[in-house]
Design a protein that fits this description.
By secondary structure, this protein is α+β, with helices and mostly antiparallel strands. It contains 2 helices and 4 strands. A hairpin with a 5-residue loop joins strand 1 and strand 2. The longest helix is centred in the middle third of the chain and has 16 residues. Bound molecules: zinc ion. Zinc ion binds next to helix 1. The site of zinc ion (ZN) has 7 residues, from helix 1.
């Protein structure tokens, strides 16, 4: 199954099956708030998601700091 995800600047990788972006975005926002005290919008987080290939997030497109 195709997956999408992102790697946080702290190294934490978060991913979910394609189609479950909503839950993934919620998890990322939760992590950003709790681990980094950052507020982000659903839209910003969605933009950072990248496809996961062979178990790895392809091309780390951004970090949590990019959305600020
Ligand atoms: Zn983090």
């Amino acid at each position: 199954m195709e997956k999408v995800g992102m790697t946080c600047e702290c190294g934490m990788e978060m991913r979910a099956p394609k189609g479950s972006e909503k839950a993934l975005v919620a998890a990322i926002k939760f992590h950003a708030k709790n681990a980094h005290n950052m507020d982000s919008s659903d839209e910003d987080v969605l933009k950072m998601l990248a496809p996961v290939k062979e178990g790895r997030v392809a091309g780390v497109r951004g970090s949590m700091s990019d959305i600020m």
